[in-house]
Specification:
single chain; 664 residues; mainly alpha; 3 domains; two-stranded antiparallel ribbon; globular
Length: 664
């Protein structure tokens, strides 16, 4: 009985906080139809401001709370005004990627401004005792905070249901054009929705931090608001209560009867089930759209253009030019570079392998993934398992690639029913599942120390790094040739057609399901091979080295370099990998900082977060696209394949004919 009571009361208490977080997520989606993946950053920022100022000043809690909530509200409004406003009317996933970039910016700034992210918040009037209910004992403060969260959430539900503000938000979300013609200021509705949602995130962060310590775990709490929002209904503010308490009860029972470590993975499994079988949620409307493509984000225009027929001569020239440059760079550094510089080259080459695979998935195929670190972890742990079973190198790496390819098929199954933001959440669920499996495998096999692998090469550190450079270069070249062959042949044309016009592709006879599953299997297998090589390169594998930040950094590579391009992933890998090296020098050049080297990763996170936002919103074709534009302006076009407007307008017919051809 005490366990059951603890599950019920604990689940309801946690559900009350989830509801408060979820209503902010739903409010933004209701108004602008996008997920705010930076929601947790606003929660953490508000809690840190109150915690730090409370420990350093004598101001009353009420004043500190107002200051904190005012700051996060203004930051949220400014984020929409100067960044996300440009995404209105564009594919929804543009804003989602932009919020991921802002989350990286916010995390980096928080790490710089708040070097100690462990604070306590004291709210005057909260009880300090314990309460026993049916044999289960709870902190009275937790129950009071939960009651406060319920009151705030219910009040907001009533406000949005029965006031003109709620009518305006609903009208703007359903049809912004008609709402604008009816006299509603759409811009202020969007701006106010973002500001209010960020304030609600701040309230949730402060209340949660008052009964728990203020740390990075607050951001993980926000990630559990997405399953709650989907369960209740993305377009239903009252559904926030249903979803929040539903996910809270699931977590309460899992924590009471199975273990707290299972809560996150089970919650995201619930999310997968809801997305596949009840995409509109319990209280949502069936008109919520599930197919949200990425093609216009890649094209950089408001209307998606059909896939172009491939210019093989241009592709071959680019490919071999890149290979020659890579050979020269590797030869130079292995002959003249220090051990550290060769190590950096090795890291760039490793990153480029995964970036090319992700670019094939997202850039060419338009299948969104923010949980790609799951396959990197899967490849590493599968390689470790094979190596411990006596499988030699490099066969164990191939085992890791095959295992991830099979896992990619499983993750690709939801892509047959969902796209865009929903598919991104499905890959996020895959990340948490892989993280949990890796944690359990490591704990049961070797413990916290992790797995150690024997060196692949012998000799000094410099000699080993040089040997790795040539091996990784060979893998990069093979990957580039394979990806280029796929991208330039029948499969690539089919993937682009599915990306741009999935319904039209199906009507033209393209087996959409088969091509989607093949795309997931191929890209996941390549990332799995990268994971196996990473395991041997580092010599040690631990589950906590595979984080969401790692996934975001790879997304940054393909966005900075340029989606659906040959050179883009390599350029992005160079920029993102070398950024922590040059950032301290740049910081010291403009402002002397004793902690420049220590804060390099944080400053780098800020920079590549800003780059994600810039390239996703302003230059979706990345550096490759910018260089192409500059070259066209500097060198007038002399004609050629695909340069005339008439050629662009006649591609639909050529694509349908080329897909049925016998080219590879």
């Amino acid at each position: 009985m005490p366990e059951f009571t603890a599950a019920i009361i604990g689940g309801l208490s946690l559900g009350a906080v989830y509801s408060l977080v979820t209503i902010g997520v739903v409010l933004i989606f209701r108004a602008t139809e996008t997920f705010n993946f930076a929601h947790g950053s606003f929660m953490l920022l508000a809690a840190l401001i109150v915690g730090r100022m409370q420990s350093n000043s004598g101001l009353p809690f009420a004043i500190l709370a107002v200051i904190s909530l005012g700051i996060v509200g203004v930051v949220g409004a400014l984020l929409f005004r100067f960044a996300l406003r440009a995404t209105v009317g564009r594919p929804h996933f543009v804003a989602v990627i932009a919020t991921l970039g802002f989350a990286a910016v916010a995390d980096g700034i928080i790490g710089i401004v708040f070097p100690r992210t462990q604070y306590t918040i004291t709210i005057p009037g909260l009880s300090t005792g314990r309460t026993t209910i049916f044999g289960a004992t709870f902190g009275t403060a937790s129950l009071e905070i939960s009651a406060f969260a319920v009151i705030v959430t219910v009040a907001l539900v009533l406000v949005f249901r029965f006031t003109s503000l709620g009518v305006q938000v609903r009208a703007a979300g359903q049809n912004s054009l008609l709402a604008s013609q009816g006299g509603i200021n759409i811009h202020w509705v969007y701006l106010g929705s973002w500001a209010l949602a960020c304030v609600l995130a701040g309230i949730a962060g402060i209340t949660y931090g008052s009964v728990n310590s203020v740390n990075q775990g607050i951001e993980d709490l926000a990630l559990l608001a997405f399953p709650a929002a989907l369960l209740g209904g993305l377009d239903s503010i009252p559904g926030s209560l249903i979803g929040g308490f539903g996910i809270g009860l699931v977590g309460g029972f899992i924590a009471a009867y199975v273990g707290g470590e299972y809560v996150t993975v089970v919650t995201y499994l619930v999310l997968l089930v809801v997305m596949l079988f009840l995409p509109h949620g319990i209280a949502g409307t069936r008109s919520v759209r599930r197919v949200l493509g990425m093609s216009r984000a890649i094209a950089g225009t408001r209307s998606a253009r059909p896939a172009r027929a491939v210019d093989w001569r241009s592709l071959i020239t680019q490919k071999y030019l890149i290979i020659v440059i890579a050979l020269i760079v590797v030869a130079y550094f292995t002959a003249n570079g220090s051990s550290y510089s060769i190590f950096i080259v090795d890291t760039i080459l490793l990153s480029a392998i995964g970036a090319m695979a992700l670019d094939l998935l997202m850039g060419t195929g338009g299948q969104v993934s923010i949980g790609n670190a799951a396959f990197l972890a899967g490849g590493s742990f599968a390689t470790v398992w094979a190596s411990r079973a006596g499988v030699p190198f490099p066969v164990d790496v191939i085992v890791g690639g095959v295992a991830c390819s099979a896992a990619g098929l499983a993750v690709g199954l939801p892509a047959l029913r969902i796209r865009g933001m929903y598919l991104a959440l499905a890959t996020l669920a895959a990340f948490y599942l892989a993280y949990f499996i890796g944690l359990k495998y490591q704990d049961n096999a070797v413990g916290a120390a992790g797995f150690f692998l024997k060196p692949v090469f012998t000799g000094t550190i410099g000699q080993q790094s040089a040997s790795w450079a040539w091996l990784l270069l060979g893998v990069v070249v093979a990957t580039m040739i394979g990806v280029s062959w796929l991208r330039g042949g029948r499969s690539g044309r089919a993937w682009r057609m599915i990306r741009d016009h999935e319904i039209a592709a199906s009507m033209m006879g393209i087996p959409v399901a088969r091509y989607k599953l093949a795309l997931f299997a191929i890209s996941s297998g390549i990332i799995g091979i990268q994971g196996g090589l990473t395991a041997h390169f580092n010599g040690v594998v631990t589950y906590d080295s595979f984080t969401l930040s790692l996934s975001i950094s790879v997304i940054a590579m393909i966005l900075i370099g340029g989606l659906d391009s040959q050179a883009g992933p390599l350029i992005g890998a160079v920029v993102v990998t070398t950024m922590p090296i040059f950032v301290p020098d740049v910081i010291n050049a403009f402002a002397s900082s004793a902690n420049a080297s220590q804060d390099a990763s944080k400053y780098s996170e800020v920079v590549y977060g800003l780059l994600i936002m810039f390239f996703m919103i302003k230059a979706p074709k990345g550096l490759v696209g910018l260089l192409a534009v500059l070259s066209r302006r500097a060198l007038p076009l002399r004609g050629g394949p695909g340069t005339s407007p008439a050629a662009e307008q006649s591609t639909a017919k050529s694509v349908s004919m080329s897909i049925g051809s016998r080219e590879p």
